[in-house]
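*** Query protein ***
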Amino acid sequence: METTSVRTYGQYCPVARGAEIFAERWTPIIMRNILYGCRTFNEIAAGAPGLSRALLIRRLRELEHAGIVGIRAKPDGHGSLYEPTAAGRALEPVLTALGVWGDQWMDVRPEHSDPGVALWSWCQVYLRRDRLPERRVVVRFDFVDRGRPQAAWLLIERGDAELCAFDPEFGDDVVVTVNDPVTFARWHLGHIGWATTLRSGGVTVEGPRDLCRALPTWNRRPEIGVRLRAARRRAVSRTDPGVPADADLIGSGAASVRSGTKVPTA
């Protein structure tokens, strides 16, 4: 693989050689988005707020030179498509292991809790389209990002949905206000339930009762998080009899491997 554009550690060690590519700033996030199915430049950028377009272009070129991402023109000739190669797909278990480690050892803090990223993850990866209403529904999300009020709209039509940065101007059926981004992120990860999220005041929801009740069921990620945490608790309890099965443990990568469950990374 060609790596002339990347700084080298000058070591034969496979960890050092792999880190020359994968440990560059923003590269794990870019690869996460591509492995999630993002194929266009704008789709990849949407899941990486704070990443400049210039740096994204540079990282994508580096990944192409390294043989990790393939770049080809769109069929209509406008723009490019970015797809993982065999080497890129082989990074999926690396990202999974990194996600397991981060979930076990890193707390969710305010600097990690951009509501826009949680919304992107929800709508790009974990949206339960099979549970969406058939009629048109617009859900507005209000939150603060870097000290500035922001809004995003989830537009649902005919059983499909799109996350919009601009008001689609059909009127808001439901308004979700994220008062505490950490609470919203912890619900998305399955660390706390929806009822707890609402009781805390970290999130408020206004709108018709049926839509307000259905809203959290459109997100698959909290359910996955609950199952993963339960599997890890059981695995830890089996390996360490002194730990009760219902202990409040985040878990470990070994537990998720034993349970046979693939761990999401966002």
Remarks:
- The domain at 110-221 is CATH 3.30.1050.10 (Nonspecific Lipid-transfer Protein; Chain A).
- DSSP finds twelve helices and seven strands in the chain.
- The longest helix spans residues 221-239.
